[in-house]
Amino acid sequence: MFPSFPSLAAALSQPFKRAQLGLFHGKTKQYGNSVPFSKNKTRRSWLPNIQSKRLFSDALGQMVRVKLSTRALKTIRKCGGIDQYVLGTKSDLLGWEGMRLRVAVREAQERRASEASASSSPHTHASP
């Protein structure tokens, strides 16, 4: 129908939809067995370690509140900040929130670049 719907449908069909609302870096819900001394196995699940953090974005010039996994936090520190992380990470690891941040950071960087080029361009006014 529309060209943007297949990617949206692929994101909606993921098994752990909560991961779309934060920076989970590919971490999802895991399943396994709880095995006590009696060896009677029962199914259980493990959720990723999610933290709410406020990270400073250099491009946006403000703090950004995100839910992220500890794996994503480690990768953000390795990349050197939230801006470099969202710009350099594959889109399937970011989710909706990460893609929203990527668009916001790119727009802010383009806006600053255009303002810098406009202010550094030589003026053609002749001084008397």
TrEMBL record:
<dbReference type="InterPro" id="IPR026569">
    <property type="entry name" value="Ribosomal_bL28"/>
</dbReference>
<keyword id="KW-0689">Ribosomal protein</keyword>
<keyword id="KW-0687">Ribonucleoprotein</keyword>
<dbReference type="InterPro" id="IPR001383">
    <property type="entry name" value="Ribosomal_bL28_bact-type"/>
</dbReference>
<feature type="region of interest" description="Disordered">
    <location>
        <begin position="107"/>
        <end position="128"/>
    </location>
</feature>
<dbReference type="GO" id="GO:0003735">
    <property type="term" value="F:structural constituent of ribosome"/>
</dbReference>
<dbReference type="InterPro" id="IPR034704">
    <property type="entry name" value="Ribosomal_bL28/bL31-like_sf"/>
</dbReference>
<dbReference type="Pfam" id="PF00830">
    <property type="entry name" value="Ribosomal_L28"/>
</dbReference>
<dbReference type="GO" id="GO:0006412">
    <property type="term" value="P:translation"/>
</dbReference>
<protein>
    <recommendedName>
        <fullName>Large ribosomal subunit protein bL28c</fullName>
    </recommendedName>
</protein>
<dbReference type="GO" id="GO:0005762">
    <property type="term" value="C:mitochondrial large ribosomal subunit"/>
</dbReference>
<dbReference type="InterPro" id="IPR037147">
    <property type="entry name" value="Ribosomal_bL28_sf"/>
</dbReference>
<comment type="similarity">
    <text>Belongs to the bacterial ribosomal protein bL28 family.</text>
</comment>
